[in-house]
Design goal:
Blueprint lengths: L13 E2 L3 E5 L2 H12 L17 H9 L15 E7 L12 E12 L4 E9 L7 H15 L11 E7 L3 H9 L3 E12 L23 E11 H17 L1
Parallel strand pairs: 5-6
Antiparallel strand pairs: 1-2, 2-3, 3-4, 4-5, 6-8, 7-8
């Protein structure tokens, strides 16, 4: 079962010499994704979703019928990709390499021509490698490229990072995003303590459940004019390293 066809834009796989982003297929990709992530709940420490206790629970996240659910295939604002590391051997998940993680376009608007790069999960065997930067670089180029050249023709890309996740913020800035603001008390992680979430470290509001945590969030943006006046070349230099 491939990623949703209800997305606002037609989508296809994109790749370079090292990494490929291909539409997420629940039957082909999720078993390996779950197997490599189930013992690493820290992958979801800064996210409102996860960790997942079973493959069925993970699949249900994408099969949720709510059109507002951020990862649901029914949500036309979202599209999920499997990240394939092409420097590895062919695998059952992909003939060009191994499944290395996921990334999604979320909160996408065909009116305002914008999206957010989110739900970035690089699996442990592929962390601290070329996979993270190439994943983001491919997503950026695909989003900004004109439809005539196979892209989405978007004008603004958004990125959000927990204030407790400096690695995410550092990656955003490395890839050319500009920090534009801070939203305090942005997300409530219901049952966050038992789920291994990381909060903002502040005294919670009165009446908050003792097991809940809250996240403060940095917002980043990268616009088409920044991309066209050096942003694309900056990303290309990074991907060549």
């Amino acid at each position: 079962m491939a990623s949703s066809s209800r997305f606002h834009f037609p989508v296809h796989a994109v790749s370079n010499d090292r990494v490929k982003l291909t539409p997420l297929d629940l039957d082909r990709h999720l078993d390996t994704f779950f197997r490599l992530s189930v013992s690493h709940p820290e992958l979801y420490a800064h996210m409102p979703t996860g960790p997942f206790k079973s493959l069925a629970e993970l699949k249900a996240e994408f099969l949720d019928r709510s059109t507002s659910h951020i990862l649901s295939f029914s949500n036309p604002e979202s599209f999920a990709f499997a990240v394939i590391d092409k420097t590895r051997p062919a695998s059952p998940e992909d003939p060009e390499g191994e499944l290395a993680g996921t990334v999604s376009f979320i909160r996408t608007s065909p009116v305002h021509l914008c999206t957010e790069i989110g739900f970035i999960v690089i699996l442990p065997p592929y962390q601290r490698s070329h996979v993270g930067t190439n994943t983001v670089g491919l997503a950026l180029n695909y989003a900004f490229e004109t439809p005539e050249k196979g892209g989405l023709g978007l004008r603004r890309i958004h990125w959000q990072a927990s204030t407790a996740n400096p690695a995410s913020a550092k990656l955003a800035e490395k890839m050319g995003f500009e920090k534009i603001g801070l939203t305090p008390w942005h997300m409530r992680f219901i049952g966050g303590k038992e789920k291994g979430k990381i909060g903002n470290g502040k005294e919670p509001p009165a009446g908050t459940d003792s097991n809940d945590l809250w996240r403060d969030t940095f917002s980043f943006t990268l616009a088409w004019d920044q991309w066209g006046s050096g942003g694309k070349e900056n990303v290309e230099r990074i991907l060549m390293k």
